Structures are given as structure tokens and as C-alpha cells.
Sequence to fold (209 residues):
Amino acid sequence: MHLTQPDRPQEAINRLLNALEPHAIPMNAIARKKISWEYKGKHQLYLFKKGEISILRSSDGLLMVTVYEPHLFGIAEMMQPMRTHGLRAEVECEILRMDAEDAIQILREKQLWEEVTILLSYHTAYLTYRDALVLQQRTYSVIRNHLLEMILLPEETRMRISMLDYIQDRTHLSRSSVLNVLSALKKGKYIQFIRGGYLQHIETLPEKF
Fold:
């Protein structure tokens, strides 16, 4: 079964970004830079405008999701600062930051808590989707779901990250188990990829293999 990602609440995200951006400060976010939740002792809210930014689990560095479209990071953390996840820029990114306490004041003044609730609901739904993608499934099913997710990425992104790296960054599957499945799928002409393991095309993927 192919799992479907939850619908992205773009309108709510846009309203939040539009309200907060005039009060935020641009920051330097180079490729592979980890981003701290705090700046000068104050919790930060990050307005992601352009690039690629990943959320990683703090306990083991597992990559939970990479975001490519404008987004906000730190809404949940400014209410429950548990620090269970961290941020990393994958490429040079356009990001703005602001003190969380200033953001909260603006959200109150502009009565944007409904938009905040919508965004947090999306985050919760995405974590549920992410768990279903990985947990309690056979190795092939996990790899299949990640390939179907990967083929939806822009070609430029797919040509920068190999299938092996993409899958291993997001799961605990061994290198050999991933490579064995990918090799069998290519031999069966289910997928096409170029040297280095960069995904070009998916013809079809069987439910079971």
C-alpha cells in the first residue's frame, strides 16, 4: 500500500509568514549547517523561505523529513521546548529568525492562533504518516514507500542524493539490505537509475517483492 502524505496547509502557512516576516531578521544558513533553537539565550522561531532544510531526531540523528517549500519551524518548541529534534540546512537557505516571545505577541495581536492550530495539526499528521512509512513494515515495503516518495522530488534534488543515502538517512535499514532490493528492482526493470544510484524513473513497483 502506498502511503499518502497529509495535505500541506499552504494558506495558513502563508498567513503566518506574512504576519511574522516584517519582524524577523535574515540569518546565514550555509549547506550542512545545524541550526540551534536558541540565539543569545532566547528561543527562536525560524521562517524558512527557500532551499532545503531537514528535521533530525536528536537521539540518533535520524532524518525525519526534508522540507523544500516555505515553512515555519519552532512553533511547537516555543511552547514545549523538549529539544527532541534539530534543524539542518541541506543547501544554502534563505531563513529568517525572531525571538519566540516576540512571535507569540504578534500571533496574539493578529489573532492567528487558528492558523497555528492548523499548522500544528499538520505536523502531528505528518509524524503519523512518517511512523506508518517506517514502523512495523517489511524491508521491501519501507524501501518501496521511500522510492515512491523520492520520485516526487524535483529532478535536481534527486540527482544530488542517492537512493541509498535517502533511504538510510530516514531509516535504520542496513546498506546491504537496501542495495539488494534496489539491484533486484533494477534487474526486473521496475526502476531506472544512473551510476551512483541516482533515481531517474519508476516504471512500476509491485506491492510485494
The radius of gyration is 19 Å.
